[in-house]
Design a protein that fits this description.
The complex is a heterotrimer.
Chain A: H1 15-19, E1 35-41, E2 47-53, H2 55-58, E3 63-67, E4 77-78, E5 85-86, E6 92-93, E7 99-105, H3 108-117, E8 119-124, H4 131-134, E9 148-156, H5 159-165, E10 168-175, E11 188-193, E12 199-203, H6 208-219, E13 226-230, H7 246-256, E14 260-263, H8 266-272, E15 279-287, E16 293-305, H9 311-320, E17 330-339, H10 353-370, H11 375-382, H12 402-418, E18 428-440, E19 450-456, E20 462-466, H13 475-487, E21 494-498, H14 515-542, E22 549-552, E23 555-558, E24 565-567, H15 568-575, E25 579-585, E26 605-617, E27 623-633, H16 640-659, E28 684-690, H17 712-724, H18 735-744
Parallel strand pairs in A: 1-14, 12-13, 16-17, 20-21, 27-28
Antiparallel strand pairs in A: 1-7, 2-6, 2-8, 3-7, 4-5, 9-17, 10-15, 11-12, 11-14, 15-16, 18-26, 19-20, 19-25, 22-23, 23-24, 26-27
Helix pairs in contact in A: 6-7, 10-17, 13-14, 14-15, 16-17
Chain B: E1 3-9, E2 12-18, H1 24-31, E3 50-53, E4 56-59, E5 72-74, H2 87-94, H3 104-117, H4 123-129, H5 141-155
Parallel strand pairs in B: 1-5
Antiparallel strand pairs in B: 1-2, 3-4, 3-5
Helix pairs in contact in B: 2-5
Chain C: E1 12-14, H1 19-29, E2 33-36, H2 42-47, E3 55-58, E4 68-70, E5 74-78, H3 83-88, H4 90-95, H5 97-104, H6 109-114, H7 117-122, H8 130-136, E6 140-144, E7 149-153, E8 158-160, E9 163-164, E10 171-178, E11 185-192, E12 200-211, E13 214-223, H9 233-239, H10 246-264, H11 270-295
Parallel strand pairs in C: 1-3, 2-3
Antiparallel strand pairs in C: 4-5, 5-10, 6-7, 6-10, 8-9, 11-12, 12-13
Helix pairs in contact in C: 5-8, 9-10, 10-11
Classes of the chains: A alpha+beta, B alpha+beta, C alpha+beta.
Chain lengths: 755, 156, 296
């Protein structure tokens, strides 16, 4: 029986342990008599550190050791792109929450008490809290190299001519705010010396091999002396791409040579983990009355906070995606990210694209209205298709499902609009909105390879080795499905070894919606290589010509002699040999020109359109999202149920982004006042999958993790505008902003009433 | 000071000495090693620590240990038997209701209490029953389906 | 700055079996003790070190503080009765539906299973959900100590935001109110940023009866708009004995926001809250009047 594993909903391989409560997350890990770590943190926005006084704290009963920057044997700074973030601060703190010292004690209580007794002598420095201020000529410098982290442009055609040609021009200012990942598991982990003398850290992570490099640098150890293991990870959404607890655990383990443990509180996670970048977007776009876009000019300014983190990525990605999934002949986009003394912004699901999509989709609705065209027809008229050239001058060769997603959603929209009835509640207004997006899979115009191995041991055991961190999205399951399909061995018979630097090789980060596409390809290549090795061995074992042999359904077969069929695992057993296939994959991209932003930054793009149906209470500003129809071009759905899960979860996060999520430093320090949607706040989601096969994707697949979120907020905001006749330009559209918009609305909302 | 604490845990009478300022959550996780019950916020706002106390879902992070005296406490560890999963657990797996899985144990407990009270809840009742749980991954829809389907199976 | 993970400073813990013993413990502690019932507010304050008591007195084993009792004209609710018990109680639904509705919208199911009505009062949050309801029910608390026993209207149990008016040795035992007659029309509304587990942005409770086409015995209390929850007498007097025409209701709504601004001053939130409380008031009035109509 041939195995068919692609496109079916097998049980997620991690689910059994999770429903039984035995999956071990960071705080669940046990290790014998660990010391407990607590971090002393800055209470200042910006200050010179004159002295860290630890004497009194050291005398607290149970305290074993207090570490400061002086105890770091290697590099003091870490960071995914720019290394500017101190593991422990020695000279100056740049935001409230910067780490200054680590207490290691026998009990949590002792560590906590000692933390209170560490005294920091500061000399205050002037602080800066908006990117506009930070970029003024005499602003206080947050880093010696200046407050401008990155400036990036995408320039194409002639925008002056483009706007001259335009018959309508719309220009607006859009603002978004900090958003917390709000992954449910607070960061936590353990450190110990493993049996081979490696400094070992087990914790939630989105990229163990990156963690390993940083820890090795900080400890000045060769890579092989550092081991990072990813434990069950309670969500990530980009927040665990940066270093969280890894270096703290490793530094203490390195010095103490005994097990240590750390658990962050939720408040600490809110204070010290990265946030989504607040962006200010000035967006001007022009169109002909026939619906053709002629030009866009976009100015993006972001607050990257105290440290660089993924600020550059957000700056570049938001600029590259600024057009939305549309053909625009004349483009000028400038994107800048500035340092401030605010909490640091980093990677969060979409890297700036959810923010820019809010702007471009609002613009599309405004233009459609200005030229009196149906918003979906207007989008369709401009939508990218096969053969289109993107903003960066890349020609799209295949798998461009934006048009199909718009057409599928249009059917729904037309049905919904035809249903209308009177309501006894005149304060409720209903509206429908559309949001579309495109999203480049993988890192932007830079190498982002993945590697994987597949092995068959002499006892016949099949092992898939991958560095990919599954953070709940299901990569373990999907990679196993692919391996099972390609090798012809049932999933239950493939042992997965994952995200442990001692056994697996670098697969890159679980980010940029890249693992299905990139690591999936690496797994498939490993299997191709494994098959070659097996055929070579089988040829000599069976004394047949290698060219006549092939692998199918997990067996070596002969093209002519049908009697020859030998399970591949049998070959390993009989020859007592170990077979190993190495795979790697790096998507084909072309670097972006530093002046013009022209190039081919991604090998493939995902596309989606959401429709949101909302009900606005025009007297309170309360918005209820009733329904979201979410149509995604995923290339090929390897595990449809997982994809649907990503989509529904993405919509929920989009509802939060649209309506309620706003991190305010020092104020929204817990789930009491940082609100994310509950089961009673989420709409009914109707997922629709479009499978416009990507030729370079594994079985045709692309990615969906971030795309799931991106179109929701734009669709909801457009629906609110449809309902009340006035638009909101500042996220989130909370009670106050919606009511304000209702007041401004001249027509007081439209007359179409809910049922 | 420590207090002598006796309560029924997952059907078995237990006896522990714990400081009264420890929460039930800490006793479960640290003293008794039952780490299936999670701490997501420590202030009753996320529901990850939900256990059943005398059959009702409560936040273990808000319960001081002495309050467990004489009570019956059920945690996620009680759901599966040696050789088979609880119907809710099976349904969660079948419907793709588990992503990162951190909120899962708590939601399972609220769902168990719901189904014991109302074997065939409608969608709104399920939403209400799990409204004290935050889930950042799933958007709840597959969780709601998983819970409702168990109810439907019982009906048949 | 420190962060705790499920960690609370030590204290002694007593679970008295009699009211007398509880009062003795509170008296002897001389202000160093805190009463704990459900703990949904107190445990958070302990965790945040906003309270550092030497002793916690757990009152959930005291018979006097349990149960919902109905006598001739009165409903009596033990201070340790949980929000779930109140919202599920057929007696409360019948004779004080405004309270049942308020209790049913608190926090989450888990919080409602733990949190108690006594705790909700004594915690004295400006946004406490049961307080507007209790205010319009003219609820009275029975307060005891070793020395005395007194009956205190709920408003007088509150001193300032998050501070009750109880003396350190006093204990709130029961909450009582006169059963509402079946021709009473009432309404409770609550607005929050989220549909569950969210502090009320605004709430309100009101009730009245119709006598010969006029509003009678009108009572109104808004939540989360005053530093200390209260009735708005100026609005009550304004509507008393008058016929509920649309114009009058609109005028009353203006009185509501005026009265609130008068008491709380103009705040950054006023530009939002003032029009919205007016709208919620009108909605509540219309809802209650519909009830009156169907009562007929």
């Amino acid at each position: 029986m041939p195995i068919k594993q692609i496109g079916i909903d097998i049980p997620k391989v991690d689910a059994n342990n999770k429903v039984r409560g035995v999956a071990q997350f960071g705080a669940d890990l046990s290790v014998s008599s660990p010391l407990h770590l607590k971090v002393v943190r800055s209470t200042k926005h910006h200050a010179k550190v004159i002295k860290i006084k630890t004497e009194e704290a050291s005398r607290v009963k149970g305290v074993e050791r207090i570490f400061t920057a002086q105890d770091i044997p290697g590099k003091h700074l870490v960071g995914t792109i720019t290394k500017d973030q101190p593991v422990l601060v020695s000279d100056r703190v740049r935001y409230v929450g910067d780490p200054l010292a680590i207490v290691a004690a026998q009990t949590i209580e002792a560590a906590e008490e000692a933390v209170k007794k560490v005294e920091i002598l500061y000399e205050d420095l002037p602080s800066v809290h908006t990117p506009e201020e930070a970029l003024k000529p005499h602003a206080p410098l947050i880093h010696d190299h200046g407050n401008l982290l990155i400036e990036f442009q995408v320039v194409k055609g002639d925008v002056v001519a483009g706007f001259k040609e335009a018959e309508v021009i719309v220009e607006e200012l859009y603002e978004t705010t900090w958003v917390d990942h709000a992954y449910m598991e607070p960061d936590a982990g353990i450190g110990f010396m493993d049996e081979e003398g490696r400094v070992t850290v087990v914790c939630p992570s989105q990229n163990v091999h990156y963690d390993q490099k940083e820890v090795a640098g900080v400890l000045s150890l060769p890579l092989e002396k550092v081991r990072i293991i990813q434990c069950a990870t309670g969500g990530g959404f980009g927040g665990r791409l940066d270093i969280t607890v890894q270096c703290l655990l490793a530094l203490a383990t390195y010095h103490l040579k005994r097990p240590v443990r750390i658990v962050y509180s939720r408040e600490e996670v809110f204070d010290v983990i990265s946030k989504r970048h607040p962006l200010t977007i000035r967006y001007k776009s022009g169109a002909k009355k026939d619906g053709r876009l002629t030009a866009i000019e976009v100015e993006i300014l972001g607050d990257t906070g105290a440290y660089a983190s993924y600020g550059a990525t957000v700056g570049i990605r938001s600029a590259v995606h600024a057009t939305g999934p549309y053909q625009v002949p004349n483009i000028k986009v400038r994107s800048r990210m500035a340092y401030t003394n605010n909490p640091w912004s980093g990677a969060m699901r979409g890297f700036g694209v959810p923010q820019i999509a809010f702007a471009h989709e609002s613009q599309m609705d405004l233009l459609a209205k200005a030229i009196q065209m149906d918003p979906i027809d207007f989008r369709l008229k401009n939508a990218l298709t096969i053969g289109s050239e993107t903003a960066t001058g890349q020609s799209l060769m295949a798998s461009v499902g934006i048009g199909e997603s718009l057409r599928r959603v249009k059917t729904w929209r037309d049905q919904l609009i035809s249903v209308s009835c009177d309501s006894p509640r005149p304060h409720l207004r209903r509206g429908i909105g559309i949001g579309s997006m495109w999203y480049g899979i993988g890192n932007t115009g830079i190498a982002n390879p993945s590697t994987a191995q597949i092995e068959i041991l002499p006892n016949g055991e099949v092992r898939l080795l991958t560095g990919v961190a599954d953070i709940g999205q299901g990569s373990d399951t999907v990679l196993l499905q692919m391996a099972s399909e390609a090798l012809g061995v049932p999933i239950q018979e493939i042992k997965l070894i994952r995200a442990d630097t001692a056994f697996t090789t670098d697969a890159g980060a679980t980010s940029a919606s890249r693992q299905t596409y990139i690591s999936g390809n690496a797994v498939l290549q490993a299997i191709r290589h494994l098959k070659q090795e097996i055929l070579r061995e089988a040829a000599s074992f069976l004394q047949e010509d290698e060219a006549d042999l092939f692998v199918e359904d997990g067996e070596v077969r002969h093209r002519k002699k049908r009697c020859i069929s030998l399970p591949i695992r049998e070959i390993a057993k009989r020859t007592q040999k170990r077979f190993k296939g190495e795979g790697s994959y790096d998507p084909e991209t072309r670097k972006l020109d530093p002046q013009t932003g022209q190039g081919a930054p991604y090998a493939t793009y995902a596309f989606a359109t959401h429709l949101a149906e909302v009900e606005v209470d025009t007297e309170t500003g309360k918005v209820k999202v009733i329904r979201v129809v979410a149509c995604h071009d995923v290339g090929k759905a390897i595990h449809p149920q997982n994809i649907v899960g990503q989509i529904i979860g993405g919509v929920a996060m989009g509802v939060g982004f649209a309506l309620m999520e706003e991190y305010i430093p020092g104020e929204t320090t817990s789930f009491v006042n940082y609100l994310i949607p509950t089961s009673k706040d989420v709409p009914e989601v109707i997922p629709i999958l479009v499978e416009d096969r990507e030729p370079s994707g594994p079985f045709g697949a692309k990615g969906v993790g971030e795309p799931a979120l991106i179109p929701s907020a734009p669709a909801i905001l457009n629906a609110i505008a449809d309902a009340i006749g006035e638009r909101i330009y500042h996220l989130p559209a909370n009670l106050e902003r919606v009511l304000e918009a209702v007041k401004k609305s001249k027509r007081g909302g439209k007359t179409w009433q809910p049922c | 000071m420590e207090v002598n604490l006796r309560f029924t845990l997952n059907g078995r009478m237990i006896h522990v000495m714990v400081p009264p300022h420890w929460t039930l959550l800490r006793v479960l996780r640290e003293t008794l090693g039952l780490t299936g019950t999670k701490e997501g916020c420590g202030i009753g706002e996320c529901g990850a620590c939900t256990v059943l106390m005398n059959g009702k879902p409560v936040n273990a992070c808000l319960i001081l240990a002495p309050k467990a005296e004489g009570k019956s406490i059920e945690t996620v560890e009680a759901l599966a038997s040696q050789d088979s999963l609880h119907p809710l657990q099976k349904s969660f797996i079948q419907h793709g209701a588990v992503q990162c899985g951190f909120c899962t144990p708590g939601i399972l407990m609220s769902a168990k209490a719901l189904l014991e009270d109302k074997p065939h809840p409608d969608k709104e009742e399920v939403k209400e029953a799990i409204s004290g749980h935050l889930c950042r991954c799933t958007g709840y829809q597959q969780i709601i389906e998983a819970i409702q389907r168990v109810g439907e199976k019982v009906k048949r | 700055m420190t962060y705790c993970v499920d960690m609370i400073l030590p204290f002694d813990y007593q679970t008295p079996k009699t009211l007398k013993e509880a009062c003795r413990l509170l008296g002897e502690a001389k202000g160093k003790a805190k009463v704990i019932a459900g703990g949904t507010d107190l445990v958070i304050r302990l965790r945040n070190e906003e309270e550092k008591p030497d002793l916690l007195v757990d009152v959930t084993c005291l018979e006097e503080l349990k149960g919902i009792e109905e006598s001739d004209g009165t409903l009596s609710i033990g201070a340790t009765v949980t929000h779930s018990e109140i919202s599920d109680s057929s007696i409360v639904k019948r004779y004080g539906s405004v309270l049942a509705k308020a209790a049913s919208q608190i926090g989450s199911p888990q919080i409602r299973n733990l949190g108690t009505i006594g705790g909700n009062i004594i915690n004295a949050s400006p946004a406490a959900d049961t307080l507007p309801a209790l205010m319009v029910l003219n609820a009275v608390g029975r307060v005891v100590s070793s020395e005395s026993e007194r009956e205190v209207p709920v408003r007088q149990l509150l001193e300032s935001p998050y501070k009750s008016a109880l003396k350190p040795d006093e204990l709130l035992v029961r909450i009582q109110f006169k059963k509402l007659s079946q021709d009473t029309c009432c309404s409770f509304h609550r607005l929050a940023r989220r549909e569950a587990m969210a502090i009320a942005r605004m709430s309100l409770a009101l009730l009245f009866r119709m006598r010969d086409g006029n509003i009678s015995d009108f009572r109104f209390s808004p939540g989360a708009v005053l530093p200390v929850p209260d009735r708005l007498e100026e609005v009550e007097t304004f509507l008393e004995g008058r016929s509920p025409e649309e114009d009058l209701l609109r005028a009353a709504a203006c009185k509501v926001s005026e009265a609130i601004v008068k008491r709380s001053g103009i705040r950054p939130s006023t530009s939002y809250k003032a029009p919205v409380i007016e709208a919620l008031f009108l909605r509540a009035m219309r809802e209650a009047m519909q009830q009156c109509q169907s009562n007929k």
